[in-house]
Design a protein that fits this description.
By secondary structure, the protein is mostly beta strands. The protein contains four helices and 13 strands. Strands 1-2-3-4-5-7-8-10-11-13 form a ten-stranded antiparallel beta barrel. A hairpin with a 4-residue loop joins β11 and β12. The radius of gyration is 18 Å and the shape is globular.
Length: 224
C-alpha cells in the first residue's frame, strides 16, 4: 500500500509527455492531499519520550501526549476544490476530540500552494463524519473561524516530502478569546514518511497563548 501511494504521488509530480497531460498541468494540491489524507498517530513517539514529558498539557511547561489524527478529503465547495477535514482524538480513535479543523489548499498569485486553516464555531454536528461526503457540502465560512489569507501556510514539495509553514511575523490574528496573537505553524512530511506538526500562538507581551506541542513537533506515523 505504501509503495502504491508513493508511486501515485510521484506520478502526480513527474514531468509528463503525453498530449493529454501537457494540456492539463499537474496540480500540486492533489499531491499534497495524497500525502496527507489518512489516519495517523504518534504512539511510537510518545512511548519513546522521557517520562517527564508524559504530563497534562500546559501553556508554560513541556509535555507530550498521544493523538489519533484523521485527515479526510471532503466535498466543501464553498471553501475550495482541495479541502481536508481533520479530526484529532486523545489517545485513540475513541478518545475525546482534541482538534477539529478545515484545511483548504489554494494557489496564490505567485503560483505558490497555500493552505488556509479554519476552526469550527461548533464542530459537534460533524464529529465522526469524515467518511460522509454529503456532510460537508453545505459547510461555509459562516460556520467557521478563519485565520485570514495572510496566515495561509506556504508549501514547497517534492515527490514524497513537503514543508508548509507560516511565521508570527506574517500571521497575526484575534483569537476567539479576544486576544491578539501571532501564529507560528509548521506541517512537514519527512523522507521517512513521518508527518510532523507544530503550532503556537504568542501574545504581544511575548507570553505564549498556546503551544501544540511545546518543544518538539508531533511525529505521526501513518496507520494501515
Amino acid at each position: 500500500m505504501k509503495s502504491l501511494r508513493i508511486f501515485c504521488v510521484c506520478f502526480l509530480l513527474a514531468s509528463c509527455t503525453t498530449v493529454a497531460d501537457v494540456n492539463q498541468p499537474v496540480d500540486k494540491r492533489d499531491a499534497l492531499i495524497a500525502l496527507i489524507a489518512g489516519v495517523w498517530h504518534n504512539r511510537a513517539q510518545f512511548d519513546a519520550a522521557p517520562q517527564a514529558l508524559k504530563i497534562a498539557p500546559s501553556v508554560n511547561g513541556d509535555w507530550l501526549d498521544v493523538q489519533h489524527a484523521s485527515f479526510v478529503k471532503v466535498d466543501a465547495p464553498a471553501l475550495g476544490t482541495h479541502v481536508l477535514y481533520l479530526e484529532w482524538r486523545n489517545g485513540d480513535k475513541n478518545g475525546a476530540i482534541s482538534r477539529q479543523r478545515i484545511w483548504s489548499f489554494r494557489v496564490d498569485e505567485m503560483g505558490m500552494v497555500r493552505m488556509d486553516f479554519y476552526a469550527f464555531v461548533d464542530g459537534a454536528p460533524l464529529a465522526g463524519k469524515g467518511g460522509d461526503m454529503n456532510a460537508f457540502r453545505s459547510l461555509n465560512v459562516s460556520l467557521l473561524r478563519g485565520y485570514g489569507a495572510q496566515c495561509g501556510l506556504k508549501f514547497s514539495l517534492t515527490a514524497t516530502t513537503f514543508d508548509g509553514n507560516i511565521s508570527a511575523d506574517e500571521c497575526s490574528l484575534t483569537a476567539a478569546s479576544g486576544r491578539r496573537m501571532g501564529i507560528d505553524a509548521r506541517v512537514t512530511m519527512q523522507a521517512d514518511g513521518i508527518l510532523e506538526y507544530r503550532e503556537s500562538g504568542k501574545l504581544a507581551d511575548g507570553r505564549y497563548a498556546f503551544r501544540v506541542p511545546p518543544t518538539m513537533p508531533y511525529r505521526f506515523v501513518r496507520q494501515p
